[in-house]
């Protein structure tokens, strides 16, 4: 390697060492080629297979990982954010690529980050076929980095999910989240670390553990739960609950003229969310338009398919809640508050 390049802050040899490690972790000896390869044989049935692509990042949850110096799960978040979007289209994720930009190639830290990407791909049964690690000392601070992911899935065009599949009377089935997942962290950090002076080591009785543990819970990957339902054509539409919370994302899964009526008492809300509401003086509307409130994915199911869906979820050890129904209406998402005698 050029000594001049190293003096400028770019250590190519360190990057080569990281690549060797990722090859070993992923079991893909082809990583590092000019392009990633993926065979197209028999990935779907039907006359018109289509590729479904998605890209995403982890947002400012990265700043929590950096502050905690805990990087082993942030790659799981990255994969989850991408492959769950692919599932919501009705496609099965097939392969994944990542981009890591950083100010300094600390080999141990980079290996920890990419080990999470490998773990996420394993959980999603998705091939890691390539990626880029770019050391840019003038672009990022020495301890800072950014992550982006790119996932591609496949489906038969006729089997793609669409809001147009949804009808009055359909049932809403919520799959629980693992806490905050990867959205709303700019607000979370503002409340906890700017409005208040809490530390990552602060323990709250409501949580039963410190903030670091809570905030770095990895985003749930729903492939094992949802893919069998897609294969059996049991789902009308899916909302992946990300930025914009329940209000925005459930609306994306509905056609005009239909309304999702959610019953908040039918599922538990993770304690971090009411805690944030209390500490940040957030309204109920703030919570519903920012956080997942305990539901990482909402499945929209025709009534005659509900028993088959819940049986499949149970067989795949996936918890679920029946959280509402679809009704006619111009307000896309309505929260039906419980009536008390």
UniProtKB/TrEMBL annotation:
InterPro entries: PurM-like_C_dom, PurM-like_C_sf, PurM-like_N, PurM-like_N_sf, PurM_cligase
Primary enzyme class: ligase
Subcellular location: Cytoplasm
Gene: purM
SUPFAM superfamilies according to UniProt: PurM C-terminal domain-like, PurM N-terminal domain-like
Taxon lineage: Bacteria, Bacillati, Bacillota, Bacilli, Lactobacillales
Reactions catalysed, as given in the entry: 2-formamido-N(1)-(5-O-phospho-beta-D-ribosyl)acetamidine + ATP = 5-amino-1-(5-phospho-beta-D-ribosyl)imidazole + ADP + phosphate + H(+)
Superkingdom as given in the UniProt entry: Bacteria
Protein name in the entry: Phosphoribosylformylglycinamidine cyclo-ligase
């Amino acid at each position: 390697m050029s000594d001049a390049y190293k003096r400028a802050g770019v250590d190519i040899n360190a990057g080569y060492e990281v690549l060797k490690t990722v090859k070993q972790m992923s079991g893909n000896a082809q990583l590092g080629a000019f392009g990633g390869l993926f065979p197209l044989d028999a990935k779907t049935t039907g006359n018109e297979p289509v590729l479904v692509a998605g890209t995403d990042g982890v947002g400012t949850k990265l700043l929590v990982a950096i502050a905690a110096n805990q990087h082993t799960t942030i790659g799981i978040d990255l994969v989850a954010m991408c492959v769950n979007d692919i599932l919501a289209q009705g496609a099965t994720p097939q392969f994944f690529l990542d981009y890591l930009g950083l100010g300094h190639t600390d080999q141990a830290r980079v290996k920890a980050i990419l080990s999470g990407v490998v773990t996420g791909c394993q959980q999603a049964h998705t091939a890691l076929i390539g990626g880029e690690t770019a050391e840019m000392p003038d672009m990022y601070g020495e301890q800072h980095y950014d992550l982006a992911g790119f996932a591609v899935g496949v489906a038969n065009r006729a089997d793609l999910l669409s809001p147009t599949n949804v009808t009055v009377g359909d049932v809403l089935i919520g799959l629980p989240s693992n806490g905050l997942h990867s959205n709303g962290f700019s607000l979370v950090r503002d409340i906890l670390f700017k409005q208040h002076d809490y530390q990552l080591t602060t323990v709250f009785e409501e949580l039963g553990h410190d903030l670091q543990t809570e905030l770095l819970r990895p985003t749930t990957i729903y492939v094992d739960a949802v893919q069998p339902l897609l294969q059996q054509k049991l789902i009308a539409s899916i909302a992946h609950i990300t930025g914009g919370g329940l209000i925005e994302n459930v609306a994306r899964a509905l056609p005009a003229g239909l309304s999702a009526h959610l019953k908040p008492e039918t599922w538990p809300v993770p304690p971090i969310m009411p805690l944030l509401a209390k500490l940040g003086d957030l309204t109920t509307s703030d919570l519903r338009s920012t956080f997942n409130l305990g539901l990482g994915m909402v499945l929209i199911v025709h009534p005659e398919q509900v028993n088959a869906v819940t049986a499949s979820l149970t067989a795949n050890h996936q918890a679920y809640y029946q959280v509402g129904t679809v009704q006619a209406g111009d307000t896309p998402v309505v929260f039906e508050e419980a009536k008390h005698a």
